[in-house]
Design brief:
alpha/beta, seven-stranded parallel beta sheet, binds NADP nicotinamide-adenine-dinucleotide phosphate
């Protein structure tokens, strides 16, 4: 099992939202070093200045293959990779931009973690096995019609999680999936639902690393929705349709 104490963590999208919460919680849990993967190095300058020995800014746009290559060279001591960076568009089938948005979401939410998993698998192996934590969403299991293209990217992420878990088990690399419900970050600013704090996602992930569970449902919404889905998937499908129809009628 990967020890969090003295681990070396690379977090994509580390500058805000859930990524920033991961930085704070991994620090509290005793990580030795955290690479702050970000598109804009200035966005973490202040954060890194608070603990410059441990917090190392790293230019990392997850859609840029060269950035990923350079990150693998610069962060060869990584033991925990957190695929956190993500984007979301609110669109359903009526959206004229659906195809454009779907391509962009696939690039960031799926191809990015795919390339990072490929690039860091040999590094984690060399460092004793390690752990890959990939952010999906409860909508990677359950479809929400108002998020048609985003859901598709998170279903793809679920496939990546399961397939990389199967392929990396023999080298001792653990692959974890995180499936939050609505979390109070910029991404969910327009979502009119009760939201959970981003710190809770990071804290529940760290607990799961320690207690050996691979699937993290970090909040009451994601836990209840997944349980309902496991019990009666058609009922959840109908519930999602009804809430979409109500939103459309409002
Ligand atoms: N918030 C929710 O309700 C919720 C629920 C379930 C799952 N999630 C998932 O949790 C993860 C984090 O979401 P969040 O809520 O923290 O979102 P957020 O507040 O919008 O932050 C998104 C992060 O991703 C980064 N990012 C976007 N495109 C990138 C790219 N091409 N390369 C590198 N970084 C990029 C952003 O960097 P910039 O500052 O440079 O844009 C930012 O750091 C995502 O995978 C999301 O899908 C979120």
């Amino acid at each position: 099992m990967t020890n969090i104490k003295d681990s070396v963590v690379l977090i994509t999208g580390a500058n805000r939202g859930i990524g920033k919460a991961y930085v704070e919680e991994f620090l509290k849990a005793g990580a030795a070093k955290i690479y702050l993967g970000v598109r804009d190095l200035d966005s973490v300058a202040e954060m890194a200045a608070q603990d410059p020995d441990k917090l190392i800014p790293l230019k990392l746009d997850v859609t840029d293959a060269l950035d990923i290559q350079n990150a693998a060279k610069a962060a060869g001591d990584t033991t925990i990779l957190v695929n956190n960076a993500g984007i979301l568009f609110f669109d359903d089938l009526t959206s004229e931009d659906a195809a454009k948005n779907a391509r962009a979401e696939m690039e960031v939410n799926y191809i990015g973690p795919l390339l990072l998993t490929q690039a860091f698998a040999p590094i984690l192996k060399q460092n004793g096995g390690g752990t890959i934590i990939t952010l999906s969403s409860i909508v990677g299991h359950v479809s929400m019609p108002a998020l048609t293209t985003y859901c598709a990217s998170k279903y793809a992420v679920q496939s990546l999680i399961l397939n990389s878990r199967a392929q990396l088990a023999s080298q001792g690399t653990r692959v974890m999936g995180v499936y939050p419900g609505p979390i109070d970050t910029d991404m969910a600013a327009d979502l009119e639902m009760d939201k959970f704090p981003p710190q809770q996602v990071a804290q529940e992930t760290i607990k799961a690393i320690e207690n050996g569970s691979d699937d993290v449902f970090p909040d009451d919404f994601s836990k209840a929705t997944y349980e309902a889905f496991r019990t009666d998937p058609k009922a959840v499908e109908a519930q999602m349709r009804e809430s979409y129809e109500q939103q459309e009628a409002a």
